[in-house]
Amino acid sequence: MVRVLTVGDVAPDFEGPTSGGQRLRLSELRGGPVVLYFFPKADSAGCTRESIGFAHYYPEFRAQGVAVVGVSVDEPADQQAFAQRCSVPFPLVADAEKEIARSYGVLGVLGLAKRITFLLDRDGRILEVVDSILPRAHVQRARERWLPSRP
User: Quick check: pTM over 0.85?
Assistant: First the structure.
């Protein structure tokens, strides 16, 4: 089993189908920070809360130049339906072959991605790893890193 990537590692490049029907290559997002979050299963309660949380703050992330990308081992059609139900405005990548999850060391024993978020710098290097079963912790940590404090 591959170890979970850690702070200082360069995030492996990948390409995959998105919920919007396009293909996304992670390296195309270089030049700005990226929230790359892995979630276990589309439509599960925790994954729904996490994705809606990132969607809620997405305009603020974009205003700061931060891209957001979600990845799970779901099929493309499941990702598309999930994105529509949750009004997710950013790409959700379908990793049905589980290659992306394996390359990041987040593929769990049940064949689902673990709930782990990688906060990447403009060069694709991992600044922080959020490893928590609590969906809110991932959104909160990304907000603390990149969104200015509110008065």
Answer: yes
